[in-house]
Amino acid sequence: MRLFFALPVEASLALAIEHWRKQNIPLAQSPVPAANFHITLAFLGEVSANLLDALCRRAEEISHAPFAQPGQLHLDTMGYWPKPGILWIGPKHWPTRFGQLASALFPLGKTFGSHRGKQNFQPHVTLYRHCESPPQAIMPPDFLIHYSDLVLFESINGKSGVRYQECASWPLQARPVRTAGPRRPGLGSKP
């Protein structure tokens, strides 16, 4: 199974991004279907089916970590990676806790999967693959994505291309931090 952790992009936002793409950067080269838009948190690579339960238990633990909270990202910049020819949009800045979530998930590729790459995390939505040169957008991207769930996807190759199927999901809800309770005056203190 070829797996990755990601944030899904809701259908209405995916259609808005697709419309913006057609209006601002209409390329003939390998557009990613709107149904495949997502923000990858950690790529795992090939994972044996017999490790799936252990992987899911670990992901659930991470989904309860203090940094695993719902939030939002402002997709306000466009980027290009020449080696794979990827044109993408993403945030210029993102919350520290969002990066911590990705950092916690990244080692699972080494533990459970086949991914051994180094981590250079940039949240993004891939718009085109196999681009020969980066075009300039007529208007910059300006999208707000709200996220509340961590999703494990399987990448499945078919005759009509790649599709992503959800395998499991976990709500992002950090466990509440315990407090010591109300303070009571001690000896020598004023009430």
Outline the structure in words.
The protein has helices spanning 11-24, 52-63, 96-105, 108-112, and strands spanning 2-8, 38-46, 71-75, 77-81, 86-90, 125-128, 143-147, 149-158, 161-171. It is globular and about 45 Å long. It is of the alpha+beta class. The strands form three sheets. A four-stranded antiparallel β-sheet has the order 2-1-8-9. A three-stranded antiparallel β-sheet has the order 4-5-6, with no helix packed on it. A two-stranded antiparallel ribbon has the order 3-7. The relative contact order is 0.26. Helices cover 21% and strands 32% of the residues.
Strand order, sheet with most strands = 2-1-8-9
The radius of gyration over CA amounts to 20 Å
How would you spell out the order of helices and strands? EHEHEEEHHEEEE
Class by SSE composition: alpha+beta
Shape: globular
Q: Biggest β-sheet: count, sense, barrel?
A: 4 strands, antiparallel
Short description:
This protein is α+β, with helices and mostly antiparallel strands and 191 residues long.
Chain-wise SSE layout:
Elements (H helix, E strand, L loop, with lengths): L1 E7 L2 H14 L13 E9 L5 H12 L7 E5 L1 E5 L4 E5 L5 H10 L2 H5 L12 E4 L14 E5 L1 E10 L2 E11 L20
Antiparallel strand pairs: 1-2, 1-8, 3-7, 4-5, 5-6, 8-9
